[in-house]
Amino acid sequence: MFTQHNRKSRQLLASGIKSTYDDDLYPTRLNFYREPPPLEISIEEFEQFALDRMQVLQALLTAQMRNLTPEQLDKAVSEAIRKYMPMSPNSKSSTSHRQLMEERRKDHISHFILRLAYSRSQELRSWFLRAECALFRYRFEKEMLKDQLEFLEKQNLSWKKVSDEDKRLLREKLKTSSFKAGNIDEETYFEVDFERVTGLVGRRQVYIQAGKAFVRLSDQVVLVLDEFKERLSHALEVTGRALPRMDEDDRLMPVLNNINKQYLGREFTSSAIAGEIQASDVDDLKVHMPLCMEHLHDELRREKHTRHGGRMQYGLFLKGIGLSLEQALIFWQMAFEKITPEQFNKNYAYNVRHSYGMEGKRTDYTPYSCKSIIMNNAPGPGDHHGCPFRHFSPPNLRAQLAAHNVDEFDTDDIIHKVQQRHYQIACTRYYEVTRAKMVGISPENIKGGLSDSATGSMIASQEVIEHPNQFFEQSYLLMKSKNAENEGGAAAAGATAGAGEGMDGVTGPVPLDATVRGRYTYKKAGASISSNVQHDIDM
């Protein structure tokens, strides 16, 4: 148990050592996380709880950044919560009391673990604060009014409830204010300093008198969220100052230091999507590569060489799409045409075999994820690896987008996301725009949700790009589906082998709704973006 290992970590993460929890510790699903969880937890749970909460936070921020409809956002977030961190309401009769407590225990502990992990820098604290505020607001708005009030009554909030007498005196003022007032006698109002609800003031949803704003109970989410944000911001600062005392804990610190770098998606090993490709196939498959790999390929062809960082990033990507070791040796030897076969065998062949797990420790390396490319081993002068959306200068990125026929509106949209450090969402937008043109669909016609023959949507149906091989796979399957559609379903009817081959030599149609799914809505450049999400999802 990690709580038995280090006194200082106990002080940070627990207010006391217990093997059981108080049944009244979590009366509702809502939590201000004022007190550390008074529980023991194993190292295995410690890491798993943190990663599960990360899945939920990233799903929520991603859904908000994709400008989904409220229905689509709710579906995306509720699916992530159900899968990784279910939180049943008190009213759910099928859930036992013990299960409710276990779910809320996990929520409590996972929050404090991520609070530790994200207290190490101002940038990390800002991301965590925004993510947790978004999650708290989502939960608060989903909670029943009875449980909302029960939760608020226990928080000792410094809000003054407006008395019935004061309400009568202010009746006409409240009625004639710009917001739609209901029955004043039945409404509950709170009196707060107006600067605490500047959003409501800006939208003229409150009456102000003598520096005080009179806020309806139905608008209380603004007040509650402000209180939550203020408390958590202070707690993060305190935790950040205390964190250096945990450096001696050699079991917890490696986990805490790497949580924000964890890639939580699918690992792409040798893929069957394109079959086992040959060295000679790589040039033709460039059309399906993400911008990072296409750039590496072009520079390799131009310079007849690339440095170690580029060889690792591009070589493992090719391994993931189906290039065998034998074909990889052929590909790299042919690409390095300025050197002799003897020089290649002496200086480079070992590294190729090593990446396939045939040399050294015989580790079978997997292709780099977007997160790994963005956060590790930044390119230096003369290097071509990295993420174009993260590492290219704005003029260079604009030139690359123009070279791929991305119009000015979409370029501005992508650059805007890059400036906000939403690199993976920028890449996803690039995928969306370029693949729309690839299959002959106007980007303006792209709709959110699953592929739908009624709308003709074939592009807006993939998740946010988290891996270069995911980009390749989705593009490849999309074109295969388009080709099968153009063939009129001949291959699906059992045509002879080879019939229905597409541009990549693929036989047989792939049902579009079974291969390319997702849920985001097109939005033109310059359109507003949710103020709740202003940080890189790739943290």
From TrEMBL:
Gene Ontology biological process terms, A to Z: DNA replication initiation; DNA replication, synthesis of primer; double-strand break repair
Residues at which [4Fe-4S] cluster binds: 292, 370, 387, 427
Cited InterPro entries: DNA_primase_C, DNA_primase_lsu_euk, DNA_primase_lsu_euk/arc
Keywords from the named record: 4Fe-4S, Coiled coil, DNA replication, DNA-binding, Iron, Iron-sulfur, Metal-binding, Primosome
Coiled coil (residue ranges): 135-162
Molecular function GO labels: 4 iron, 4 sulfur cluster binding; DNA-directed RNA polymerase activity; metal ion binding; single-stranded DNA binding
Cofactor note: Binds 1 [4Fe-4S] cluster.
Gene Ontology terms: cellular component: alpha DNA polymerase:primase complex; nuclear envelope
Domain DNA primase large subunit C-terminal, first and last residues per copy: 287-472
Keyword Iron-sulfur in record: yes
Cofactor(s) needed by this chain: [4Fe-4S] cluster
Protein family (similarity comment): Belongs to the eukaryotic-type primase large subunit family.
Its biological purpose: DNA primase is the polymerase that synthesizes small RNA primers for the Okazaki fragments made during discontinuous DNA replication.
PANTHER family found in the cross-reference section: DNA PRIMASE LARGE SUBUNIT (PTHR10537)
Protein name as catalogued: DNA primase large subunit
Phylogenetic lineage: Eukaryota, Fungi, Fungi incertae sedis, Mucoromycota, Mortierellomycotina
